[in-house]
Amino acid sequence: MAFVITSPCVAEKAGECATVCPVDCIVEDREQFFINPDLCIDCGACAAVCPVFAIVEEYELTPAQEPYLEKAEKFFGIST
């Protein structure tokens, strides 16, 4: 499992998550940050520092949040 950055991050981009990530799996795009699900080690450091509570564990995504996982996979070129 990986963490996923959801809608509260769109246009917010505080960036603390990328700073604390021990494996550098968080990348900034124009709209928001994305977590590479293939590289994420599921440590939770990013979620703990997110000021807008945008980071959710993949298995806890609601149906409305699932497009953010798909968006991250597309961003990183990961086929599902």
From TrEMBL:
Cited Gene3D superfamilies: 3.30.70.20
InterPro entries: 4Fe4S_Fe-S-bd, 4Fe4S_Fe_S_CS, 7Fe_ferredoxin, RnfB_subfamily
Required cofactor(s): [3Fe-4S] cluster; [4Fe-4S] cluster
Annotated GO MF terms: 4 iron, 4 sulfur cluster binding; electron transfer activity; metal ion binding
Annotated ranges, domain 4Fe-4S ferredoxin-type: 31-60
Key words of the record: 4Fe-4S, Electron transport, Iron, Iron-sulfur, Metal-binding, Transport
Physiological role: Ferredoxins are iron-sulfur proteins that transfer electrons in a wide variety of metabolic reactions.
Name of the protein: Ferredoxin
Species per Swiss-Prot/TrEMBL record: Heyndrickxia ginsengihumi
Lineage: Bacteria, Bacillati, Bacillota, Bacilli, Bacillales
